[in-house]
Amino acid sequence: MRILIADDDQISLRILEKSVTEWNYEVVLAKNGPEAWDILSRPPIPSIALLDWIMPEPDGLELCRRLQNQKSNNFIYIILLTSNDRPEEIASGLDAGAHDYITKPFNKDELKSRLAVGRRVVANENSLKQANEELRRYSLEMESLAQERAQQLVKADRMISLGTMAAGITHEINNPLTILHGNTILLKIFWQTMGEKDLGAYLESTGKNSAASLMLPNISGIIEALQTGVERLRKIVDGMRTFSHGQGGKTEQIDLRTCLSDAIQLCQPKTKHLGGMKTKVEEIPFSIKGNPVQITQVLVNLIANAADALASTPNPSLNIELYPSPGQAHFTIQDNGPGIPRENLDRLWSPSFTTKPAGKGTGLGLAICNNIITEHGGDIEVDSKLGVGTTFTVQLPNAEEYDRIMGKRKKNLKE
Ligand SMILES: Nc1ncnc2c1ncn2[C@@H]1O[C@H](COP(=O)(O)OP(=O)(O)OP(=O)(O)O)[C@@H](O)[C@H]1O
Ligand SMILES: [Mg+2]
């Protein structure tokens, strides 16, 4: 432990130095007040200071006052050396900030014991400081954890409301759709067995220019179009049902390269005005599990969003990457569009948030992406700077981690 001994009496200084060095302290000496102040103000700061009361200014008492007023983070245990032990003198020394005093001529054993007390107090102060620091760090960690949890809850809450809404809509649509679907099939059968068979004879009887001869030959086509439309609606409703139940649908090994090339293909009508995009696709050295249709859906929405954002950017650039990191696969979709204003970043994942004109965007895209990726045990994040661009990053766990997450979810559901 480092100790400062300050005394303007050379003989006393040497005697003190000799004793204190014997007790295994690292000693620094000061021959007067200014030297002592210099040592006390510059690192490495001593832990104990043995200060002679009477010295050329600043004297021991003044040094105590200065240290007390300085309110530094470094604790220094101060012992005043005095030849006057009148109670009022001692009281004024302690009031000035000294922790202890010793009278001259000092007794060696007493000095040793008083220094040992100082050493214990310094050790306690240091461990208290360390504990405080740890407590502060811990409370900061807790605060950021609480913020993160709060954000997750907000996201979860939005997803619940979106899921409830989607479940309600699918239920309402599904009943009339079933009727429509059944009747379309019946209509087709009736037409094929009854109408189409007698069509020739009937048209001959009505004449070439009759309304019937203009309309009836189109009935087959009309029924086909009706059936295609109904099938499409059924697919949408099925998709919404999967989404509202929060399930990934069919789980299988996913080839992320195929998902990406499918998505790029599907987005071509939107991206062709960009004059090409850059893609960098790395090998993923482990397998990924999930629903490939849903992963493609996520990529389609992210690429379509970027293409929309780049609509009026003078030199648009869209970079897409697929790369691995230990245990995870990552997609990044990066554009140099106008960026997302700060106040919109929190609302981005809400199913009702869109800045697109009515009829162009529903605002559901990112809410669905978030739901799908969370269901896959992954994460989706956005980083955006106004006037610079936006990057969405999707992380997906490897198959092993995926199984672990799904197992844990099942267990939590049972409890
Ligand atoms: N790359 C991007 N650059 C700038 N803004 C973006 C970007 N991606 C999303 N946004 C903003 O986020 C909003 C919400 O996107 P989201 O995909 O959820 O819905 P949408 O694209 O508006 O509608 P939908 O996806 O249903 O067509 C967008 O309207 C847009 O304001
Ligand atoms: Mg979108």
Molecular structure report:
Helix 5 runs antiparallel to helix 7, helix 8 packs across helix 10 (292-309) and helix 10 (292-309) runs antiparallel to helix 12 (365-375). The chain has helices at 10-22, 33-41, 60-70, 87-96, 108-206, 211-215, 219-244, 256-266, 268-271, 292-309, 342-345, 365-375, 399-414; strands at 2-6, 26-30, 48-52, 77-82, 100-103, 252-254, 278-281, 288-290, 318-325, 328-335, 379-385, 389-397. The strands form 3 sheets. Strands 2-1-3-4-5 form a 5-stranded parallel β-sheet, sandwiched between helices. It has a 5-stranded mixed β-sheet with strand order 7-9-10-12-11. A two-stranded antiparallel ribbon has the order 6-8. It has 3 domains: 2-106, 3-Layer(aba) Sandwich (Rossmann fold), CATH 3.40.50.2300; 149-244; 252-414, Heat Shock Protein 90. The protein contains 13 helices and 12 strands. Helices cover 57% and strands 16% of the residues. It has 415 residues and is of the alpha/beta class. The mean pLDDT is 88. Bound molecules: adenosine-5'-triphosphate and magnesium ion (MG).
Question: Which helices and strands appear, and what pairs or packs with what?
Answer:
Elements: E1 2-6, H1 10-22, E2 26-30, H2 33-41, E3 48-52, H3 60-70, E4 77-82, H4 87-96, E5 100-103, H5 108-206, H6 211-215, H7 219-244, E6 252-254, H8 256-266, H9 268-271, E7 278-281, E8 288-290, H10 292-309, E9 318-325, E10 328-335, H11 342-345, H12 365-375, E11 379-385, E12 389-397, H13 399-414
Helix pairs in contact: 5-7, 8-10, 10-12
The structure holds adenosine-5'-triphosphate and magnesium ion.
